[in-house]
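Page header: ASSEMBLY MODEL / two components / 438 residues total.
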Amino acid sequence: MKKALCIMSGGMDSTLCAYMAKKEGYEVVGLHFNYSQRTQDKEKECFYKICEILGAKTVEIDTNFIAQIGGNSLTDRDLEIRKTMSDEVPNTYVPFRNGIFLSIAAAVAERYECEAIYIGVTQADGSGYPDCTAEFIKAAQKFINLGRVYQSTVKTPLINLSKADIVKEALNLGVALEYTWSCYENGVVACGKCDSCRLRLKGFSKANAVDKIAYAKLS
Amino acid sequence: MKKALCIMSGGMDSTLCAYMAKKEGYEVVGLHFNYSQRTQDKEKECFYKICEILGAKTVEIDTNFIAQIGGNSLTDRDLEIRKTMSDEVPNTYVPFRNGIFLSIAAAVAERYECEAIYIGVTQADGSGYPDCTAEFIKAAQKFINLGRVYQSTVKTPLINLSKADIVKEALNLGVALEYTWSCYENGVVACGKCDSCRLRLKGFSKANAVDKIAYAKLS
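Prediction written out in full:
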């Protein structure tokens, strides 16, 4: 059975990707990264729960050097996570995170002969990170296959979907969205205010759907 | 002063690269990776010694997931390191190692605003690894700059040099080659038989120069 390595954060987008890979007939291998981000434990729990539901194999990799490099509010606790939308790249941008994740995925895919690598990037309705564009993924595809013996295809089924499209498609496929975590803050419930919560809530709202996860009461 | 991030293994090629970067007028920041390879302690010692000589800043990053991924004889102690030359990619090939190293270097370079990233790959006289070609580096350059806010240039001054050229250039620049380690085995002295020793010795021989490091007596 052909294998797909799915980079899975435990969030909504990458979870949908893994369901799509399974629907395409792949044996799903979930790949999760810990990088000492604020919500590491929550994301990991969601990752394992989703993989259990999907019957997927799991690979968990520690990349704590990302926190060592620093310079972003996901790993630096003394930087505040932005709560207002703006056109600038926000301080939640982790330098070249998707580049690092794709490179490690390439090594894992080569080792386990996974012919597809799924990554849930979206350029249509994201936070404006440079490592989420179609042009970047095209360059990644070339980089990955020129540098290895085994060849795989990078798949980004969400690249041009809006958050509303993502919610609709996820509900369509019966994705267990109630087990996903998107919030950048490590609260007991999602904050509802950070970029990631706002984008998620906007997606549900535009899709006329109800998000079943709990949010902090907004003042 | 403009900064160059130099990926340095503690071996001959990357050490020469760092000297070349310094000669080009850069402030050198040495970047070293530990990945539970057999010769981790020796390489690390060489890295720090060379950086001390160069007056370079140091960044040391643990990437032990490379050993977790496995599939190569540098990290898998139960695989034997090849001692005969052949045209096949040898089992010392670590899946996508340079891809991973360049991606992490890209993040470090973005964080510390290093306008150049030096990597000592050589396609002319290497072991035939796919992640050492000029075409691969060109793809890496595109991948790295498309995925980041800050832009840097990947420099590979050794890409077309033979090992003999490298030895000559290193002696020319007064590189402390006696403090470098190339052997794949973790012996008290270099084995003289692995691909890496053979290439190094061939380089010295063709350059009519003497390698001052100690080798095991060859039977």
